[in-house]
Fold:
Amino acid sequence: MSVYDAVIVGAGPTGLACGIELKRRDLKAVLLEKGCLVNSIYNYPTNMVFFTTPELLEIGDIPMTSMYEKPTRTEALKYYRRVAEFYRLDVRQYERVERITGHDGNFVAHTVDRFGCPRAYACRKVILATGFYDRPNLLGVPGEDLPKVIHYYKEPHPYYDMDVAVIGGKNSAAIAALELHWTGARVTLIHRGEGISDKVKYWIKPNLENRIKNGEIKAYFRSRVLEIRPDSIRVATPEGEIWLKNDFVFAMTGYHPDVDFMASLGIRFDPETQRPYTDPETLESERKGIYLAGVIVAGMNTNEIFIENGRFHGKQIAEAIAASLCRT
Structure:
């Protein structure tokens, strides 16, 4: 079994940035990704536009071009494919890391590929760049496991002339509700809060509020779904429980880091923020030899770290690993 200088768990923009920086230092790394390349971006809505400019998404000093001021999801996917190809990064797609054994300088990452075959990778260091978008916050109600319940909104066409419930009051829910309405779905918005979140993008929030005011989109605030059935949902509202006819449920309730996986590796967290304890200079966790990169460094405060700043973790970690390996 060949030994890698580092195994990188996750091939999103931050994982790719880590791979690039290690390669620049002549260190051998392999990226293990349970989905496709930049899987989280792939799961974004099909027609999504980033709320940032192209240069803030760049990694590896490769320019990103866009037809407009702000890049689209499709342009980002194309860009990151080009980056991975340019640097000839060793990315193993559709290979899930099940566990990591060993110790600093002598780890083994145990995986299962898309055919169900077990594999193992020996390495000196481990970098976790697993993000958070792959793990939705569940409602915890009966019927949530029905096929009609969707945690990732992609595009509205399949839901034309359907009774659709959108759960949530932030950006993802607002965009889904509007696009579904414009495509001819009968949309009901259900949200625990008093109204649409003030964090919703400034050009989307008033549009949605006007649709609600005009009765084009039905909204239940200070409400929550209690039960999901194949043809209906039960909702608790301030006026009491109601049943609504329903064909599909979009649970846009947010996402969270894979805390359980990190905890299984001996990584400890702040009990309030779930922020993992890391060295601020090197981003090495308390489990010596395991480094954290990207949004998982922020714990549950996932609005602190984005592609725009998480991409710099690669250089920070690569420098620390290179220095550590030089001393051994």
